[in-house]
Amino acid sequence: MTEFLQQLVNGITWGSVYALIALGYTMVYGILRLINFAHGDVYMLGAFFGFYIARLTGAANDPNPLRAAGVLLLSMLGCGIVGFVIERFAYKPVRKSSRLAALITAIGVSLLLENGGMLLFGADPKFFPQIIPSANVPLGMGVSISNQQIIILAVSVALMLGLRFVVLKTRVGKAMRAVSYSHTAAALMGISVDRIITFTFVLGSMLAAAAGVLVALQNPKIEPYMGIMPGLKAFVAAVLGGIGNIPGAVLGGLVMGIAEVMVVGYLSPTWRDAIAFVLLIVILLVRPQGLLGQPPAEKV
Amino acid sequence: MKQLLWCAGLLAVLLAVDTALPRIVNPYIAQVIVLCGINIILAVSLNLVNGFTGQFSIGHAGFMAIGAYSSAMFSLKVGAPWASELVAVGMAPFVAHGVALLAALILGGALAAIAGFLVGLPSLRLRGDYLAIVTLGFGEIIRVLILNVDAVGGARGLPGIPGWASIFWVGAGVAAVILLARHLALSTHGRALFAIRDDEVAAESLGVDTTRYKVLAFVIGAFFAGIAGGLFAHFLSYLNPNSFTFLKSIEVVAMVVLGGMGSISGSVLAAIVLTLLPEVLRPVREYRMVIYSLMLIVLMITRPGGLMGSREISLGWLRRRVKPARESV
């Protein structure tokens, strides 16, 4: 029982990271119907930006919570800019072409970020500095949680609530929802569709950057290819919850994180990468719109 | 009769190339040519699914892996002893190995086709992106499965596969897949596939059994992916699950889209371009993947319909291109 609870705690922490990345996928898909394959690589960049910022600002040598928060925010800012550049120079020119062309462009951007990362950061893994000294907090019944896990959970929840606020309560959020419903109708209502799309990319990239820094806190080994698998799985999480659906992405991320940790704990670590896709195929066959998604009305 | 002559001529040419080429070019160039051929088979077969039928599969590496591993296991356990027996009773080694290779390839292709059927049947009621995601998931599951089965080497890979696949066999595979795709495109069945791509509802209302045809396209595509996998295995003599990652599937999709959806010659061209590109860029080693990805992005921005669009290169097409130029003089 203790072991199960411990796995559950780890699973929820890991799942909240998936949820953060999945949110970016789901928002972009909701608005552009584009699977943004480069999203996992933005997450990787987030971790690397955090690494360099921590070194430059001295947060690596003198860990304190304020500096750690600064590292997180600056890295999010950096990835926000990267998201802006990607959208402006790669995705915008193909927006009017077929969705396949857009998809291949996304794949091209993904390869560019990975291999550009190899070139800039080098192929050897880097070790993320401990910007928060680690400590264990007992939760009772033999279950414990590290303070890093608490931070991961707290920051993720805060960011998700913030996103919820932006999407549901602000003008720009209202515009985002309108654009995801129909580009044409939104444009007729005086919404600048291009700006909303850019805003969505920036927002999604910032969340991915946060996920990158948070993961690096717990698993300090970072390398340019680290984004591929988490990116794919976060995407699967978004589909699991119902793609285009923001609460769905969070739920999907949590389910995925817990399932993965359980498989590693009780079955075998080598099956870890399969569970995500097995879950995916099962859900798509039983409930193709995802856990929280609405079945799409089919126009004939 | 004419067709038979064509085929015989083609095989003779391939045989000549097979014997002559290793003497003219170095093994590296020969290897690049073979890899071009294998990628052509993959791209054209995926084009049947993505380009002809408009379904979106990004799990082609999974079918390739099934074909590669099953044919390799067959050759290791059955084919190799069998071939040496045939040689012992006096058959020419080239023929004996060819027979064994052919059996292995057909087995690999058939197993991949069965997998294609099993994946296709339930998942083809999904559309667009969802189908893409299922095929992606399937490809990854196959890879993890192979990683976990010790009998096929797991993560260590599978060494010692007989290296029977020469340029002759790869060329024959390329010819087979192109001929099949071409005949399919001109047949009733091909028209049905195009109709599904252009408007599924309209096709169905005109009496096209859409599910049957979608599964058919999937099965044929998977079969040739399996053949390509088998050739790959018997050419490199070594298999590793890492050759069949999601990236391999993506590479093939890029070939199809870059060539132009539904254009066979486009797929062939793009397969050659995308195979050669990383090789040509070898001198600028560190930058090559960066340049490759940049070129992919730029090509998609400047030519979103692919290099060839849905056109085909043929004699008639070339003639038409030349003629207006002459008239304008």
UniProtKB/TrEMBL annotation, chain A:
<feature type="transmembrane region" description="Helical">
    <location>
        <begin position="42"/>
        <end position="60"/>
    </location>
</feature>
<dbReference type="GO" id="GO:1903806">
    <property type="term" value="P:L-isoleucine import across plasma membrane"/>
</dbReference>
<feature type="transmembrane region" description="Helical">
    <location>
        <begin position="12"/>
        <end position="35"/>
    </location>
</feature>
<keyword id="KW-0472">Membrane</keyword>
<keyword id="KW-0997">Cell inner membrane</keyword>
<feature type="transmembrane region" description="Helical">
    <location>
        <begin position="66"/>
        <end position="86"/>
    </location>
</feature>
<keyword id="KW-1133">Transmembrane helix</keyword>
<dbReference type="Pfam" id="PF02653">
    <property type="entry name" value="BPD_transp_2"/>
</dbReference>
<feature type="transmembrane region" description="Helical">
    <location>
        <begin position="98"/>
        <end position="121"/>
    </location>
</feature>
<dbReference type="GO" id="GO:0005304">
    <property type="term" value="F:L-valine transmembrane transporter activity"/>
</dbReference>
<dbReference type="GO" id="GO:0042941">
    <property type="term" value="P:D-alanine transmembrane transport"/>
</dbReference>
<keyword id="KW-1003">Cell membrane</keyword>
<dbReference type="GO" id="GO:0005886">
    <property type="term" value="C:plasma membrane"/>
</dbReference>
<feature type="transmembrane region" description="Helical">
    <location>
        <begin position="237"/>
        <end position="267"/>
    </location>
</feature>
<dbReference type="GO" id="GO:0015808">
    <property type="term" value="P:L-alanine transport"/>
</dbReference>
<dbReference type="GO" id="GO:0015188">
    <property type="term" value="F:L-isoleucine transmembrane transporter activity"/>
</dbReference>
<dbReference type="InterPro" id="IPR052157">
    <property type="entry name" value="BCAA_transport_permease"/>
</dbReference>
<protein>
    <submittedName>
        <fullName>Branched-chain amino acid ABC transporter permease</fullName>
    </submittedName>
</protein>
<dbReference type="InterPro" id="IPR001851">
    <property type="entry name" value="ABC_transp_permease"/>
</dbReference>
<comment type="similarity">
    <text>Belongs to the binding-protein-dependent transport system permease family. LivHM subfamily.</text>
</comment>
<dbReference type="GO" id="GO:0015192">
    <property type="term" value="F:L-phenylalanine transmembrane transporter activity"/>
</dbReference>
<keyword id="KW-0812">Transmembrane</keyword>
Automatic annotation (TrEMBL), chain B:
<dbReference type="InterPro" id="IPR001851">
    <property type="entry name" value="ABC_transp_permease"/>
</dbReference>
<keyword id="KW-0472">Membrane</keyword>
<keyword id="KW-0812">Transmembrane</keyword>
<feature type="transmembrane region" description="Helical">
    <location>
        <begin position="61"/>
        <end position="82"/>
    </location>
</feature>
<feature type="transmembrane region" description="Helical">
    <location>
        <begin position="130"/>
        <end position="149"/>
    </location>
</feature>
<feature type="transmembrane region" description="Helical">
    <location>
        <begin position="94"/>
        <end position="118"/>
    </location>
</feature>
<feature type="transmembrane region" description="Helical">
    <location>
        <begin position="29"/>
        <end position="49"/>
    </location>
</feature>
<feature type="transmembrane region" description="Helical">
    <location>
        <begin position="215"/>
        <end position="240"/>
    </location>
</feature>
<protein>
    <submittedName>
        <fullName>Branched-chain amino acid ABC transporter permease</fullName>
    </submittedName>
</protein>
<feature type="transmembrane region" description="Helical">
    <location>
        <begin position="161"/>
        <end position="181"/>
    </location>
</feature>
<keyword id="KW-1133">Transmembrane helix</keyword>
<dbReference type="InterPro" id="IPR043428">
    <property type="entry name" value="LivM-like"/>
</dbReference>
<feature type="transmembrane region" description="Helical">
    <location>
        <begin position="252"/>
        <end position="277"/>
    </location>
</feature>
<dbReference type="GO" id="GO:0015658">
    <property type="term" value="F:branched-chain amino acid transmembrane transporter activity"/>
</dbReference>
<dbReference type="Pfam" id="PF02653">
    <property type="entry name" value="BPD_transp_2"/>
</dbReference>
<feature type="transmembrane region" description="Helical">
    <location>
        <begin position="289"/>
        <end position="309"/>
    </location>
</feature>
<dbReference type="GO" id="GO:0005886">
    <property type="term" value="C:plasma membrane"/>
</dbReference>
<keyword id="KW-1003">Cell membrane</keyword>
